[in-house]
From TrEMBL:
Source superkingdom: Eukaryota
UniProt-recorded name of the protein: adenine phosphoribosyltransferase
Reaction catalyzed: AMP + diphosphate = 5-phospho-alpha-D-ribose 1-diphosphate + adenine
One annotated GO biological process: purine ribonucleoside salvage
Organismal lineage: Eukaryota, Viridiplantae, Streptophyta, Embryophyta, Tracheophyta
Pathway(s) served: Purine metabolism; AMP biosynthesis via salvage pathway; AMP from adenine: step 1/1
EC number(s) from the headed UniProt entry: 2.4.2.7
GO CC terms: cytosol
SUPFAM superfamilies the record matches: PRTase-like
Signal peptide interval: none
Amino acid sequence: MSTLSTLSPPKILEAKTVSHCFFYSASSVKPNFFLPNPNATAARSSRRVKPLIYRGATGGAAAPERHSTSMAHMASSNVDGADDRISRISSSIRVIPDFPKPGILFQDITTLLLDPKAFKDTIDLFVERYKDKNINVVAGVEARGFIFGPPIALAIGAKFVPMRKPKKLPGEVISEEYSLEYGTDKMEMHVGAVQPGERAIIVDDLIATGGTLNAAIRLLERVEVTVVECACVIELPELKGRDKLGNKPLFVLVSSA
């Protein structure tokens, strides 16, 4: 089994915005958590990867130590790239190997939710970005978008609109089909939940391949809503999900290398 002794320390990145994409310059931060095998793909996807290495235990005899994503970065001109909120959020996210099936490294935000300060920091950073952008709609993608979307909507005075899987909404719906690796799925929204001309952000916990966010964009634009931006806590950049978003900007807090 390999060890962690040769891994590079995590980095806090300072953001620059160039044509709707965010680029970062790095400065080292003292590491205080364990990192996955650098050749592994940290993804909720079907790609085969080497398992994450845990060392030690916290919170119980068999509990793995929390693992943060390997890099944290901000894409907001209102917050300094070295803001300690970013490192706190990053270090509160745990990675679970071989879940929900072998070969997957699952980005687990439930440990972030167990940390009230990190959870509040997450919401605050989104609110700071969107509070003065005349957002009418916060659209949350099922299911973890339902965790982060409502408090953001309340704080900025917008309505929350759930974007759900098929046959979950009781009223008349409009739907958008999107491709999966093996087949297709649908995203649905209640008819009348949004109005033409409204301005929306789309919120989810993570962007991987970008398929669900792309479907949410298409669904809102079909009813003449302006999608201002997509917002996620975590990005898996190696899966190139932002390429699926067309010209829509993407705002993320934490990137997993």
